[in-house]
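Case study B.
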Amino acid sequence: MSAILIIEQVLNGLQFGVMLFLMAAGLTLIFGVMGLINLAHGSLYMIGAFAAAAVAGATGSFLLALAAAMAAAAAAGALVELTVIRRLYAADHLDQVLATFALILIFSEGTRWIFGSFPLYLDVPAALSGPVTLPGGIDYPRYRLALIGAGLAVAVGLWALTQHTRIGIRIRAGENDREMIAALGVDIGRLYTLVFALGAALAGLAGALVGAIQSVQVGMGEPVLILAFVVIVIGGIGSIKGAFIGALLVGLTDTLGGIFLPEFFKLFMEPGAATQTGASLASMAIYILMGLVLIWRPTGLFGARA
Amino acid sequence: MIPERWLTFAVLVGLLAVALGALVMDRPFTITLATRATILALAAVGLNIALGQGGLVSFGHAAFFGIGGYAMGILAHHAQTFTPLELGPLTITGTKSMPVIWLTAVVASALAALLIGLLALRTSGVYFIMITLAFGQMFFYFAISWSAYGGEDGLSIYVRNDFPGLNTLDPIQFFGLCFTLLCLVLLFAGRLMRSPFGLALNAARQAPERVETVGLDPMRLRLLAFVLSGAVTGLAGALFADLNRFVSPAMFSWQLSGELIVLVILGGVARLIGPVVGAIAFVTLEHVLGDVTEFWLIWLGVALLLVVLFARGGIVGLVARRGHG
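Model:
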């Protein structure tokens, strides 16, 4: 096991982590401000990926594809917020779960209807394809490195947005006391639609970015959604900082577990059995991490409310 | 509006009549559909103990369904390949006997529910939903990576397991078996609702502080409800695996957890017969709409949205007034 392999895997873990952050940030914002659990967030991720694949196929421009992904996901998000989600803020969590589960069915089958069951492919842009040589002589895919950069940039942007802009102040105020800011003359309905569209755009962006290294297909959003849930359970619901730390923890645990656990078991087991045991355990590693965090802190690392 | 007890009786008689009618008209496929509805109903009745009575929105009940399925798959696999099952120092031979398989499925899923419950019940609300969903997914990935029992491909069981005195490969006899189990579990769940435990559990859902002040521990009530709920769903999983003679990681999928909740809500939450009505409606919709369009799940989604937004109380809530079932 060489240092190069370890550094590569750490980078892979970071890349996975920052993409999870894009999903988790939207989920945790929406929960923090509106108190809503949105299962259909994975559908917005899928919509972003499909929009990007369609636009990239038609125009050949990756930047246009990204813009289309964010616009399509934000538009879909705003649309469902105005028609369905709006009625659910006062409802209990069970109703929210059911209604957003229904939205998953509608979005997934609707996409299958329009695009068919076969996966689409989104190419990595030419400027970002191929490897880049890092200090120390490590060859690493340029695109994945760009993903890490993009994820970190979005994280910084979100931080600046929530801490240093008027809209950010309103969002934070909405988390603390929605009646009060409504009384102060902020149009709370519009703020909700905006937050929902923002979260949707982030999910769409993640879908498009990841869509270039995986296939774009129906059902691609839900596994990511469930991992994003693990992230915000670990980080604490409603906390963007928690989502960031949680996302990196989950990304690194999942990636490194898959590499190191089989190696670890090889120290005292025969290779075949070690690979098997290691792989099985690695598939459960992030959930075990989640369990441990829950025993230690039931509301997550940075969570205030239960 | 009719009393709930009549509806319970009518639904069960109706289900039985459909199966017997199909037998007379020689339509084995309809019997299989009725069996499928019966088994899904059983799984949903299990979920309803936690969801309806305890107010615990478990989005991970596929875990117990899958564990029940794999209990059947693993035992029958070892029996059909004549290989013993090595569990550390213990060596067990596989079995094709349904009662033994059912017992194993119930015990295994109850144990899993105990472990998940101990962790997940430390939290509530949205956390609980997400954590149960995540643990369900953990079992899904574990089953995929567990290549000894088929991994992603699952396990095929060539011959349906045995029940003393019955030919279980005959559709109507297998239906009878599942139907009897459903009736027994409904009887148990109905008794449970009215027992001191059921009443305390209901109170713990509505006013946990008050339950605590009278000296009961809401945590323990919820945990017991969750374990009972998981055990019943696990039993349904074993039957479902036997119906298809096949188990795969799909039994652990989050979609299945979601569908089980849908069955409960579609039928009517916290109503004894609600999950059964939901399961019958679901299988009927699946069959009828599935014939018309490949994309029938869109219409299920639309129907579900309408029920959530406008028809709270589900089908049973529309038809029957609340009473003692």
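The two ends of chain B are 14 Å apart (CA to CA). The remaining cases will be described in the next quarterly update.
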